[in-house]
Design brief:
Blueprint (H helix, E strand, L loop, with lengths): L1 H13 L4 E4 L7 E4 L2 E7 L2 E5 L2 H10 L3 E3 L8 E5 L6 H15 L2 H8 L10 H8 L21
Antiparallel strand pairs: 1-2, 2-3, 3-4, 4-6, 5-6
Length: 150
């Protein structure tokens, strides 16, 4: 069963740009982006990084979540996956952790990936950007200060 979970986690991670897998502390896999760990699995738990507010909310509201040992002070949580994990939730947590750890360039690359069918088409977005704006809708410009002479 653990092998199926690890394979499913690997499939989620492989879809992200420039990820790798390491086993720094024994046989348990940890996934990295440019040598920085963004997720790990071991003992039936998935470890991911979230922001501090989400960490507090998850731990307070759901008994499956605990503050991760050693790195919990930096926003990491452990999620007990159990026998039938909610894969949509797992994928969202891994993606969120990746976004927090990955360089901005890779996050932008991820955002540039093909959008789901329900998203507006690029031509619709472009047309909305080019909509004329009246002068009264534009923010007022601050007056320029004269340059100091030397």
């Amino acid at each position: 069963m653990a092998d199926r979970i690890v394979e499913r986690l690997r499939a989620i991670v492989r879809a992200l740009p420039e990820t790798g897998e390491k086993t720094p502390w024994g046989p348990d896999p940890h996934w990295t982006v440019r040598d920085k760990i963004f997720a790990g699995y071991g003992g039936g738990k998935l470890g991911v990084k979230v922001d501090k507010e989400l960490q507090a909310a998850l731990v307070a509201s759901d008994p499956r979540f605990t503050i991760a040992p050693y790195v919990g002070k930096h926003g990491w949580v452990d999620l007990a996956l159990g026998k039938a994990p909610n894969w949509a939730e797992v994928e969202a947590l891994i993606l969120g952790s990746y976004r927090l750890i990955a360089p901005r360039k890779l996050v932008a690359q991820l955002d540039a990936a093909p959008a789901p069918v329900s998203a507006p088409s690029p031509t619709t977005k472009r047309a909305a950007k080019r909509a004329p704006v009246s002068r009264s809708d534009r923010p007022a410009r601050a007056p320029r200060r004269p340059r100091a002479r030397r």
